């Protein structure tokens, strides 16, 4: 008798939950609250805090764009690199990942095709991730790149990296103008729920879940569920300029130590002081620097109201980056 009562209560709770979920779904659709639809792109990672999910294959829709997106088994956009073939590595955020354009239209793929037509038999491997910043780029330089040393590194930097580095707090400034990594915390509850639901393709059509995910992401200014909150991050004021420059300098120093030539690419770094500081930093570390045309000079290269590149913007970036890599002395030698 008691078991029947428990079962009856359980069924009523399940029915109530389904009814509330259905009502919520109808309301969200009717009010148009969900603006980003499609399966989550990132998941939690013990080394990097978050990473791009492997074997994605779907559509991402926002009020400003609709894009076809897939990733390979390594969690990167584009095909896996061929064995024994030299590689060029791209590090960056939404711009390098190609948010807003379909597979094959992002500049790392176009750069690869351009270099091959110019006689370079190599693969371009993109380690870019949406809403990424310079701390995670440094972690990739230290942990991912040594496994297959690149012929050259394209380090793309955005203007919002200065803000994002302080928000993510993956590193802290130390007293010697260097940076010290903070421990990556365990998977957060929002991440755990997202990672649990991500393999269920039919849930990706739910606008209620998309709206809830947007709310969690907006709270942390990240993509999908937020990156793990680092202990001590955001508690004390931080010199965001000093932190960002120290992170980039550490990446350049690591690459120089390993003999990897670096091309620093600035996208949407609008403040002249930031450009000057990054130019000085690149010169001090023997890196080459390229500034992509800003929105004010090339509005057709940017999606309206965003810092993302259009297909034309990606084509232009690929050509400019290929030219910069080949400029004497060539970084691809």
Topology overview:
Layout: H1 2-31, E1 42-45, E2 49-52, E3 57-61, E4 66-70, E5 87-91, H2 94-97, H3 107-117, E6 123-126, H4 134-143, E7 152-158, H5 161-168, E8 171-173, E9 179-181, H6 189-197, H7 207-220, H8 240-258, E10 262-267, H9 272-284, E11 288-291, H10 311-326
Parallel strand pairs: 5-6, 5-7, 7-10, 10-11
Antiparallel strand pairs: 1-2, 3-4, 8-9
Helix pairs in contact: 1-7, 3-10, 4-8, 5-8, 8-9
Task: Write out key terms for the chains shown.
333 residues; alpha/beta; Rossmann fold; 2 domains; five-stranded parallel beta sheet; two-stranded antiparallel sheet; 10 helices
If you had to describe this structure to a student in words, what would you say it looks like?
This protein is α/β, with parallel strands linked by helices and 333 residues long. The chain has two domains: 1-31; 42-326, SGNH hydrolase (Rossmann fold, 3-Layer(aba) Sandwich). 40% of the residues lie in helices and 15% in strands. The protein has helices spanning 2-31, 94-97, 107-117, 134-143, 161-168, 189-197, 207-220, 240-258, 272-284, 311-326, and strands at residues 42-45, 49-52, 57-61, 66-70, 87-91, 123-126, 152-158, 171-173, 179-181, 262-267, 288-291. The chain has a five-stranded parallel sheet with strand order 6-5-7-10-11, with helices on both faces. A two-stranded antiparallel ribbon has the order 1-2. α5 (161-168) crosses α8 and α8 (240-258) runs parallel beside α9 (272-284). The radius of gyration is 22 Å and the shape is globular. Mean pLDDT is 84; it is low at 219-236.
């Amino acid at each position: 008798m008691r078991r029947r009562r428990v079962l009856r209560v359980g069924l009523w709770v399940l029915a109530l939950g389904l009814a509330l979920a259905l009502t919520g779904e109808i309301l969200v659709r009717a009010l148009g609250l969900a603006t980003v639809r499609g399966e989550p792109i990132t998941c939690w990672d013990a080394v990097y805090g978050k990473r791009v999910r492997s074997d994605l294959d779907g559509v991402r829709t926002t009020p400003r764009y609709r894009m076809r997106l897939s990733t390979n088994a390594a969690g990167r956009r584009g095909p896996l690199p061929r064995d024994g073939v030299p590689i060029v590595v791209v590090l960056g955020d939404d711009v390098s990942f190609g948010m807003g354009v379909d597979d094959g239209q992002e500049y790392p793929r176009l750069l690869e095709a351009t270099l091959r037509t110019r006689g370079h038999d190599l693969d371009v491997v993109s380690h870019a991730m949406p809403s990424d910043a310079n701390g995670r780029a440094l972690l990739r330089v230290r942990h991912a790149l040594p496994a297959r040393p690149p012929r050259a590194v394209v380090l793309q930097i955005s203007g919002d990296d200065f803000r994002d580095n302080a928000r993510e707090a993956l590193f802290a400034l130390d007293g010697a103008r260097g940076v010290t990594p903070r421990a990556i915390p365990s998977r957060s509850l929002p991440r755990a729920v997202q990672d649990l639901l991500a393999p269920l393709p039919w849930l990706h059509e739910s606008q209620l879940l998309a709206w809830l995910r947007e709310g969690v992401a907006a709270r942390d200014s990240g993509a999908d569920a937020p990156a793990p909150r680092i202990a001590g991050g955001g508690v004390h004021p931080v010199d965001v300029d000093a932190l960002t420059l120290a992170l980039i300098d550490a990446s350049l120093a690591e690459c120089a130590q390993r003999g990897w030539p670096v091309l620093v690419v600035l996208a949407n770094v609008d403040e002249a002081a930031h450009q000057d500081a990054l130019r000085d930093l690149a010169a001090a570390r023997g890196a080459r620097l390229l500034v992509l045309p800003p929105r004010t000079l090339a509005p057709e290269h940017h999606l309206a109201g965003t810092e993302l590149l259009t297909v034309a913007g990606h084509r232009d970036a690929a050509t400019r980056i290929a030219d910069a890599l080949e400029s004497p002395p060539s970084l691809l030698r």
